[in-house]
Hints:
By secondary structure, the protein is mainly alpha-helical. It has a single domain, classed as MetI-like fold, CATH 1.10.3720.10.
Amino acid sequence: MTIDMITTHLLLVFFSVLLTIIFGVPLGVVAYIFPKARKIILKVVEVLQTVPALALLGVIMVFLGPDRATVIIGLFAYSLLPVVLNTYTGLVEVDPAVKEAAKGIGMTKINRLFLVELPLALPLIFSGVRLAIVTSVGVAVFGAFVGGGGLGSVIYESIRVSNMKLLLQSTAVLIVMAVGFDFVMSKIEKQMNKKLTGNSVD
């Protein structure tokens, strides 16, 4: 196990989550604004996460070949649900009184969305991103089977040669990654909620 393998694993997670944010948040907004599209969007992202990760990567590999891009796209698809769902839920749960107040002072739908509703939904959206990151850290292990490299390669090799020490080391690194990301982001999320509560009180 080398630093390069750990770095590769982190980069796979980073780029997949970046794609998830870029596409997931807008999809959640579309689901919130357009009821007709809501069922389709939510059903598609739900189905994507029910597909076994290795099978999903295998299907993508048929079209893109064994490559890191295959892993990134697979992780992106697999991580969409929490971001899309939390974005939609966060917008829906904005206090109706706040929405009416914004409407009452003459704000357009677009202004209400970007200046009022999305900022208030941000903590829940961030929570979805946190879940996506933690999920991707674990699922990225399967990237080794489709040419993605990372810690999955170490785990696969350690199992193949029955190297329990290497297996435990690589597993420990994965756990530290997942727990570390979850801990840091949960702290940030609490601060966001605290700031939002303070602002609402003010």
